[in-house]
């Protein structure tokens, strides 16, 4: 079950959210998935170059934007892995 009533008011699919949280997913990621419109979820999104083609500075900036910690200690490969796993 989700942590508070406030969470449930903002979540469109609380059962899916709770299942994702039980699997160990972060609150943010579980909420994004549970709040995605089912029709829109199957559509292809935008495209960007593969992370391997990004500079270390660009990877660092993206990691900073989404809140990945300890990024200053990460190599390029570690930044790529962290971004893909987020």
From TrEMBL:
Residues 1-50 are annotated as: Disordered. It comes from the Bacteria. It holds the Pfam family DUF7218. This is Rho termination factor.
């Amino acid at each position: 079950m989700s942590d508070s009533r406030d969470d449930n008011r903002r979540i469109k699919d609380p059962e899916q959210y709770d299942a994702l949280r039980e699997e160990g997913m972060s609150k943010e990621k579980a909420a994004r998935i549970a709040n995605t419109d089912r029709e829109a979820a199957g559509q292809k999104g935008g495209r960007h170059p593969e992370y391997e083609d990004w500079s270390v500075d660009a990877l660092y900036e993206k990691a900073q934007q989404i809140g990945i910690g300890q990024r200053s200690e990460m190599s390029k490969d570690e930044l790529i892995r962290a971004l893909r796993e987020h």
